Amino acid sequence: MPDKYNRPKEIIDYCLKPLGLDRSADATEEVYRRFEHVIKTYQSQILRAKQPVDVDFSQMRTLTINEDAHGHD
User: Fold this and answer.
1) Euclidean distance between CA atoms 72 and 42, whole angstroms
2) Between the CA of residue 67 and those of 18, 31, 35, what are the distances in Å?
């Protein structure tokens, strides 16, 4: 997976992956909906300023919350 993301769902999936959330749960869907709204709002503001930006996670330290649940990534 790349270190830079520019689509809201890619950013959300990357950030929430360590939590192992059930995507079919109502609460998880609500979290995704809210995060997507926030990211799209920020991206629209950035585009209006004519300064598009990718989110760069390459310098962020990896954190594994439950290695057994995630295949010892």
Assistant:
1) 34
2) 9, 23, 25
- Measured in degrees and rounded to the nearest 5, phi and psi for residue 34 equal -70, -45
Rounded Cα distance between 73 and 64, Å, is 8
State both tokens at 66: 């439950």
Is this structure's pTM higher than 0.85?
no
DSSP annotation of 5: E
Check residue 1 and give its pLDDT. Answer: 52
Structure tokens at 55: 């989110």
pLDDT digits (tens, 9 = 90+) for 27-68: 999 999 999 998 888 888 888 888 766 767 777 676 565 656
β strands within 20-66, DSSP E: 55-56
